[in-house]
Specification:
about 45% helix, nine-stranded mixed sheet, single chain, alpha/beta, Spore Coat Polysaccharide Biosynthesis Protein SpsA, Chain A, about 20% strand, 12 helices
């Protein structure tokens, strides 16, 4: 494509009380080598220094503040503001890797049938030190549905036309918002994995995914799968997989309830998962999930403590 034919790419950053990391997220979008990048930051009622950080970028990004209304409502508002033909978002504590947008545009331009691209991402700590690379799976819509796997991670971008056909993100969801939307978006066209690191995902003690999940949040995986099979025009070959998908959703809910200390609910989820698909309990995935419940959270806390000890 000629330079004047390049589509505008909008990078949205919803921000809520993450001022120490926000500048790095903004810089990662501004420093992309793609010439037609729009950066939009919406401050969702932060009470820290977020506004001061944003004002330091006046004239370089679009930003505004509004009373707190939650991440999904903030994203839906941002999609209405964005001018781009290609849209993406990163957390205010995350970052895009250099060249991520150029690689995205090239992939989408080469295949008009694609609606979304995603790549691998690096985990980093609170001081931006590398932890490990997360290699994502090649896209398989059935796998995403049946095994309750959120294949696209940080660094995913999608076409505005697909957003307009799919509709708004569901503001009743708090933790499964992107998974739910990718399921619906995947009915509009194909996704493509770009086998390179496109983003940095920060692990730190204050983030939502390492906070205790309440009961409503823990129930979201089951609700998303039930709704998908009840209301969406799924391909016929997916219909027979409903029980297995729902069983896996109950396993994810069990994991979240155990993390939140609600053991009675967690065991109830396990019972429901077993009743739907007993063979799920013989899989490597279930063993990994069990280990994750027992050790993952503790492991990250040990990592943070060791980092503080050796980097004082």
């Amino acid at each position: 494509m000629m330079r004047h034919d390049l589509p505008i790419v909008s990078v949205v950053i919803p921000a809520y009380n993450l001022a120490p990391y926000l500048g790095e997220a903004i810089e990662s979008a501004l420093n992309q080598d793609y010439p037609k990048t729009e950066v939009i930051v919406l401050d969702d009622g932060s009470t820290d220094q977020t506004r001061s950080v944003l004002e330091s970028y006046a004239g370089r990004i679009y930003f505004e503040s509004h009373p707190n209304m939650g991440q999904v409502n903030t994203l839906n508002k941002a999609w209405g503001i964005a001018k781009g033909e290609i849209l993406g978002w990163i957390g205010a504590d995350d970052a895009l890797a250099p060249g991520a947008i150029t690689k995205t545009v090239e992939a989408l331009a080469a295949d008009p049938g694609l609606v979304l691209t995603y790549g691998d991402f690096n985990l980093i700590d609170s001081d931006s030190r590398f932890i490990r690379r997360v290699k994502t799976n090649e896209f398989d819509y059935r796998d995403m549905v049946v095994n309750v796997v959120c294949t696209p991670g940080p660094g995913a971008f999608f076409r505005r036309s697909a957003l307009e056909a799919t509709g708004r993100w569901d503001n009743s969801l708090k933790i499964m918002l992107d998974y739910d939307y990718w399921l619906r978006l995947g009915l509009r066209g194909r996704f493509k994995r770009i086998p390179e690191v496109l983003a940095l995902y920060r692990i730190h003690p204050g983030q939502e995914s390492f906070s205790r999940m309440d009961e409503l949040k823990a129930a979201e995986p089951v609700r998303v799968i039930e709704r998908l099979f009840a209301s969406e025009p799924l391909p016929d070959d997916l219909r027979p997989w409903r029980e297995k998908a729902l069983s896996n959703a109950y396993l994810v809910s069990a994991q979240l309830n155990f993390r939140g200390g609600r053991y009675r609910l967690g065991f109830r989820n396990l019972r429901d998962a077993f009743a739907l698909e007993p063979t799920n309990f013989l899989t490597l995935k279930t063993l990994r999930m069990t280990a994750n419940v027992l050790f993952n959270r503790t492991g990250h806390r040990v990592w943070w403590k060791l980092n503080r000890l050796f980097h004082r």
